[in-house]
Design brief:
By secondary structure, the chain is α+β, with helices and mostly antiparallel strands. The protein has 4 helices and 7 strands, in the order αββββααββαβ. It starts with a helix and ends in a 5-residue tail after the last strand.
Length: about 160
Amino acid sequence: MKPANTVKLILALLIAAVALYLFFLRPTPLAPGEMAFYYDEANDELVIDEAGKLAPFDGKVIARVYACEGSCSSASARQIAYLEKLTDVGREVMERGFELALAGEDPPPELMDDGTFIRANTLVRKPDEDRWHSLDTRQGNRIVTGADDICSSGDAVECDPAD
């Protein structure tokens, strides 16, 4: 394979890994200026900031916010279903991957797997609990798949700050 084709293949694989990462952290594509919900752990409050940031940052983690029966426009109806962040190792590898991609270099080998690394290095927890769980554990999976359970009717919708 020609060196130019190798670089293109590597960049394509890195982009695929980043897309998989963003799939777990943000189910819809990011648009310029798009905002997201975060949770400030020091102040115990829901905040809005620029979407796509690698959490944790500045004491904030991603907040997955839902409302029952489509009532996201009412701040009082919004509920935090779960919180999400990267492990220190996950964050370091993702940052290194972005830097290497910008420099046209090979991505870290951890980002070349089938998503196992990202799942193992993404942590989730319920807002009323202190313990974080890896996304690839039964507990972590239960937290994420149980997000709809915040509504007795089961009709929870994920909220967007623009709502």
